[in-house]
């Protein structure tokens, strides 16, 4: 469903992606782990056309991703994104954040969008917050609203860009729980994360990347429990035993 | 004081004609300058080189020429090129263009102050550039734009008096005419000052009301 073939991307002299290839099937959950600066977020941003790429090809359901083409908006409607810093619209209520896309992008009737929005807020456990503004919510609640906003577009896949990295530790669980439910419902997900336990539990495939390339990939057990590559072993040791 | 009140009663009807023209002039040029200012600002943040450079050049050009000279140019020079405008039209267009440059810089600053993550979030749900501006960026930027916008509005009201130099009989001009024919300088110019103040105060109240109105979601 999402295919990346030999993707290259540079920021100035910094060669961030050096021939990155990935094939994600429908319903598959892929977790990408790796040190900061390894290009994990850039992969997601390229898939969603938030960044252009310099070489190779990215296709979503057969459509080539090109940030400058008119097709990009219809690709983005199929592949939603959840950001590290939530990026909720601060001037709109929680319900409005969730209904904004359906009403203004998909031209859904307001009443229908609100019914759907309320159902999604219930799904992420925030039914009582629909009239609140983002600033009145905790980080964990904001991120759950952001997930509901992404779901409201009825996407075929969701890209999660370090969704729990900006959260206080005690709030990480509530967001991961929502993501785990999504995974169980068969949503196609690519998750850039440092939550190794989460990756172990829900990922069909784990990818360890470093310096713009995939160093090691496989099912969660083999990559996380029996990593073959020295760099993977070193990274996992530092993440799981920081002292 | 008694004398002032008698003078006031006598001059008020004539000065009110000036007030009326001042209001028309201010509202007309405010409307035009806001519209044009928004166009220049959107051109500058469009990310399209030609539009950005064109707007920058125009804004700097306009900012670098005194308003009074621009008014003279529109009223006295354009007729030489076959474009003849009434004094009021020339004043509205002149003030409108002159102030659009200041609005533009204010609007651009407000737009650029919005976190880039907002644009990405809007893009990620499939919004295009126009819709992002209309639904996400401008509604947030307006809160930043409003206080300086209020300043500019009041400056425009007062600068509308410059239109007197191209024969628009607005408040300052009427005051000057009455004063020079009656020599009652104190009464007349006190009244003129009070009348400008009476027009400015509601404008200030309007801006602070709008600031409250657009602050949704900003209180924790």
Task: Give the gist of this structure.
Chain A has 243 residues and is α/β, with parallel strands linked by helices. Chain A has helices spanning 40-47, 72-78, 94-104, 110-123, 139-152, 169-184, 196-202, 220-225, 230-240; strands spanning 2-11, 14-24, 29-33, 55-60, 63-64, 79-82, 157-161, 188-192, 205-210, 213-218. A six-stranded mixed β-sheet of chain A has the order 6-7-8-3-9-10, with helices on both faces. Chain A has a four-stranded antiparallel β-sheet with strand order 2-1-4-5, with helices on one face.
Q: Could you describe the 3D structure shown?
A:
The complex is a heterodimer of chains A (243) and B (220). Chain A has 243 residues and is of the alpha/beta class. Chain A contains nine helices and ten strands. In chain A, the strands form two sheets. A six-stranded mixed β-sheet of chain A has the order 6-7-8-3-9-10, with helices on both faces. In chain A, strands 2-1-4-5 form a four-stranded antiparallel β-sheet, with helices on one face. The model of chain A has no long low-confidence stretch (mean pLDDT 93). Chain B contains eight helices and no strands.
Mean pLDDT of chain B: 91
Mean pLDDT of chain A: 93
The N- and C-terminal alpha carbons of chain B lie at a distance of: 52 Å
Give the tally of β-strands of chain B: 0
Quaternary state of this entry equals: heterodimer
Q: What is the count of helical runs of chain B?
A: 8
Query: Ranges of chain B with pLDDT <50 over ≥5 residues?
Result: none
Structural class of chain B: mainly alpha
Please state the CA-atom Rg of chain B, rounded to the nearest Å: 21 Å
Largest interface (CB within 8 Å) is between:
A-B, 32 and 23 residues
**Distance from first to last alpha carbon of chain A:** 40 Å
Identify the overall geometry of chain A. globular
In percent, how helical is the residue content of chain A?
25-40%
Give the CA-based shape of chain B. Answer: flat
